[in-house]
TrEMBL record:
CDD domains, alphabetized: CE4_NodB_like_6s_7s
Molecular function GO terms recorded: hydrolase activity, acting on carbon-nitrogen (but not peptide) bonds; metal ion binding
Protein's name according to its UniProt entry: Polysaccharide deacetylase family protein
GO biological process annotation, one example: carbohydrate metabolic process
PANTHER family registered for this protein in UniProt: CHITIN DEACETYLASE 1-RELATED, GLYCOSYL TRANSFERASE-RELATED
Keywords on record: Hydrolase, Metal-binding, Plasmid
The keyword Cytoplasm is assigned to this record: no
Residue span, NodB homology domain: 1-175
InterPro entries: Glyco_hydro/deAcase_b/a-brl, NODB_dom, Polysacc_deacetylase_ArnD
Species this chain originates from: Streptomyces griseofuscus
UniProt keyword annotation of Disulfide bond present: no
Length: 199
């Protein structure tokens, strides 16, 4: 299974990284370009820890409302920001708000990005308790799931210890998106992925 975190890095990201490391887990972080430039040490730590780093645009827009040229600016801009911090271009895109269409996936493909959606959304962006986030993940989890979380809220790191402990006790392994999809041929630019192999 793959935990993913959108919108960072923020002041809450180090807590998440500490918890992942303590539980010998890795995740995928979809970073906003300017946020990566503001907190480059956090992004470098993500890379050092073995986490995957993906593209979450420059201004967090609804990409479906933009022209192809504007979409490209958003994707390339954030990708270039990531390159300037860690020296490697991302190959994964999480569209803000999960908003994508044929135009978005086509431009993503042209810029070398696979579109990564999710199969489990505990809606940590709503004003809910850490306990509610825990329950939604633990009770709904299936093999191959991609879990959508955010590292911009204080409540999300508070939910992680029980999620990591409970699911590990049930035999789940926490992997990055590339690791999750490797056994099914990996990711290809322009294709959309909602989950990994269901086994």
């Amino acid at each position: 299974m793959a935990l993913t975190f959108d919108d960072g890095p923020t002041q809450y990201t180090p807590s998440i990284l500490h918890l992942l490391e303590a539980h010998h887990a890795v995740a995928t972080f979809f970073v906003i370009g300017p946020h990566a430039l503001q907190r480059p040490a956090i992004v470098r730590r993500e890379q050092h820890d073995g986490d995957a780093i993906g593209d979450h645009t420059v201004t967090h827009p609804h990409l479906t409302a933009l022209s192809s040229a504007r979409i490209r600016l958003e994707l390339d801009g954030a990708a270039n920001d990531v390159v300037s911090v860690v020296g490697r271009r991302p190959t994964l895109l999480r569209p803000p708000f999960g908003a994508y269409n044929t135009r978005v996936s086509r431009v993503a493909g042209q810029t070398g990005l696979a579109v990564i959606m999710w199969s489990l959304d505990p809606q940590d962006w709503k004003k809910i308790t850490p306990q509610a986030i825990e329950r939604r993940v633990i009770n709904r989890m299936r093999p191959g799931d991609i879990v959508s979380l955010h590292d911009r809220y204080a409540r999300t790191p508070k939910a992680l210890p029980l999620i990591l402990t409970d699911l590990a006790n049930r035999g789940y392994t926490f992997v990055t998106i590339p690791q999750l999809l490797a056994s099914s041929g990996g990711t290809r630019p322009g294709l959309v992925y909602h989950h990994g192999p269901r086994r």
